[in-house]
Amino acid sequence: MYLKNKIFSAFLILILGTQLTKAQTTTIRGFVYEKETGEPAIFVNVYLKGTTLGVNTDINGYYSIVKVPKGSYILTATGIGFDTITQEVIVAEEEIITRKLYLPKKAVTLQSVEISAEREAQKTEVKMSVATLTPKDIKQIPTIGADPDLVQYLQVLPGVVFSGDQGGQLYIRGGTPIQNKVLLDGMTIYNPFHSIGLFSVFDTDIMKNADIYTGGFGGQFGGRISSVMDITTRDGNKKRFAGKVSTGTFQSKVLLEGPLAKQKEDGGGSASFIVSLKNSYLNQSSKVIYKHVNEDGLPYSFNDVYAKVNLNGANGSKVNFFGFNFTDKVNYTNQAKLNWESTGFGSNFILVPGSSATLLDGNFAYSKYKITQVEGDEKPRTSLVNGFNMGLGWTYFIGKNDINYGFEISGFKTDYTFYNYVNTKISAVENTTELGVFFKYKFVVKKLVVDPSIRFQYYASLNEFSPEPRLGLKYNISDKIRLKAAGGLYAQNLLAAVSDRDVVNLFYGFLSDPDNLQEEFKNRGVDSRLQHAKHILAGVEYDVTKRITFNAEAYMKDFNQLINLNRDKIYPDDGVHRDEPDSIKKDFIIERGLAQGADFTLKYDYRRLYVWLVYSLGFSTRDNGNYEYYPHFDRRHNVNVVVTYKFGKKNDWEADMRWNYGSGFPFTQTQGYYPYLNFQSGGLQTNYTTSNGQIGIIYGDYNQKRLPDYHRLDFSVKKNFYVGKNSEIQVVASVVNAYDRENIFYFDRVRYRRINQLPILPSIGANMTF
Question: Distances from the Cα of 363 to the Cαs of 309, 390, 603, in angstroms?
Fold first, then answer.
């Protein structure tokens, strides 16, 4: 342990020491903003005209062109949907030159194909198993109600399995929801999806960018072993007061934004705000509109609030303050009640030092999530998780290469209680602290892009140290064909508390620091209380034409140690029961998992027509030491077809369609029932001939049968009305499950009653931006 601590300390000193590095040659850097709103212009091209020196802006609109020789240059910025702007820059000596650029929107949108900055970035970024989304992308999926939603787009991504329209969760390439890290402006979000699977907690209109890593992610992310969802929000309009109001059959929304101190192009700082409020009334409106569902309607309701204040300095440095409150309620009469609440607040900043080519960023955030579920007369299951995370990071640019390093400290508390099928109470309350340090160095050697990184994660409450090397590679065979690969080691402490006996899971709880863990797994000692995984991924990108792109990726995730709650526990782990096997006395058990498969995507994007085809083949298994089984989210085949078509003289009409097919999930059959007496009230004196017992269930072989296949068609039609320079009204008509497919949602074993997913749900809505 002493040696590990020495290595950890030396590494920390090394990477923090490098931030003192000064610029050795001239650097031209700064931020690019949208002239109309003052928002950062992301992923636009910034270059010195007539040279090969140039970069793309990042999600903050930041650019840095390094190693610029002495001379006079024309600094140029251009992006899709914007006019090109130029500015003269004179380099007389080795120095750091800062320039802000303001991109005006194009007056006329061209119908020809333009090469996007994202496609150009594919040649210098590994981009293995990552999808970069903007609100424009999300709006190409059928809009349910009056507004598009991130969750509807995520369900189309390759490798993503969605478990249902109601109470659904995302399973990404064999990983469970607890193994997916979700960040909103640096805050940890423990449940990003509402119980009705049409909506997430995120408002698409306040989003700036979302990076979805489905595997092989770099050392900047830690604490999860499957995937990462990193979402950033807009700063708010810095030029004028603006907003959006929308209403529909599912929900209503109000978004307001504007300047607190207006941005001026001739210099100075600025301040802005943005606030979003969403409210669902589906539990009430469905009783009137969707009488074919049942007399109780659709029992879902939620409220989401998010607010942010942005302060910008004269040189582009900025600090943000934000907070949120998300709530969700489900009430199936006489069957199940579920509600959860998520709250949080935080701050992040970007600092542009005047004398260094290094960019400094940091954050602090706190969030809390509590969920409770009651089924029939059973005792409730509850779960609470709350905690903080804070970090600092430095980025140093060297042409097309860059160095990124930093550290992160996080701590959280978990409090979980439930009763198993023999009415034994299982409760766990834990506090944990984690420290992570990472280092990344991406460099380009001719046609080869190499992106190595390493993360050192220390779990203080477990006294465990986890070194996690990772690597990404890309080789540009030609301008059209690129090979890529990635892999690495990953670990996490947080684990789930879900009942595997349920055909479909409604409740998702959280646990950590598994103390009472089985000591052996398959005749080998268990020397770690962490969950571990290895990722190996490989793929190819092929630009078939300027309008057609093809991407194929194969993956393997070896979850070489998973820790699950022992739902078969009968005896306490004490001296009296020392001879009983761990499988019936320990609180937690060890499992091993393997996920492997391949994903294929084909995109066509030209003028008015957009087509996206996705096929995923996946295999997921678990081994608990006694037998192998298929987890309940194992889906062999998954197909998505998305089509968007714009029409009308002004392209003011749009039709969107999405069809999804998924082969059936595994489940455990019910073989029979029996009267169960637990003898807890009267002990051995209980009169079993007259006492009324509970219903005991005899289960079949675990997850050896498959549910029926799932498929659903959604479509929407939109019409835009332009009523002023900054005002627009959009009317949306949509249909969920257009041909009324009966897909299973939930099965109550005791009452032997099946509840289906959403039936056919037509809706209409309208929104107005100003």
Answer: 14, 5, 36
pLDDT in tens, 575-607: 888 888 887 888 788 999 999 999 999 999 988
Q: Which pLDDT value is given to residue 6?
A: 46
Residue 272 to residues 204, 236, 241, 560, 708, Cα–Cα distance (Å): 19, 6, 10, 47, 51
pTM (whole model) above 0.90: no
CATH 2.130.10.10 at 2-108, yes or no:
no
pLDDT digits (tens, 9 = 90+) for 446-491: 899 999 999 999 999 899 999 999 999 999 999 899 999 999 999 9
The confidence score (pLDDT) of residue 11 equals 46
Q: Which regions of 352-463 does DSSP assign to beta strands (E)?
A: 358-375, 381-398, 401-419, 425-445, 448-459
Q: Which of 186, 195, 194, 179 is nearest to 323 (CA)?
A: 186
* Dist CA 399 CA 98 (whole Å): 16
What per-residue string of b and e applies to 325-355 under the rule 16 or more CB within 10 Å gives b? Answer: ebbbbbebeebbbbbbbbbbbbbbbbbbeee
Question: How high is the pLDDT of residue 3?
Answer: 43
Residues 6 or more apart whose CB falls under 8 angstroms from that of 359 comprise 62, 64, 350, 351, 352, 394, 395, 396, 397
Please tell me the distance from the alpha carbon of residue 414 to that of residue 511, in angstroms, as a whole number. 6
Residue ranges per structural domain of the chain: 2-108, 130-668+704-769
Distance CA 96, CA 73 (A): 15
CA distance 374 to 380: 5
Judged against a pLDDT cut of 90, whether residue 166 lies above it is answered with no
Residue reference for tokens 């979402």: 231
Give the DSSP letter string of 228-296.
EEEEEE----SSS-EEEEEEESSEEEEEEEEEEE---TTS--EEEEEEEEEEE-HHHHHHHH-TTT-TT
Q: For residue range 723-759, list pLDDT tens digits in order.
A: 888 899 999 999 999 999 998 876 777 777 787 888 8
Parallel, antiparallel, or unpaired: how do β-strands 227-233 and 180-184 relate?
parallel
CB atoms within 10 A of CB 219: 25
CATH architecture of the domain formed by 130-668+704-769 = Beta Barrel (2.40)
557 contacts 173 by C-beta, under 8 angstroms: yes
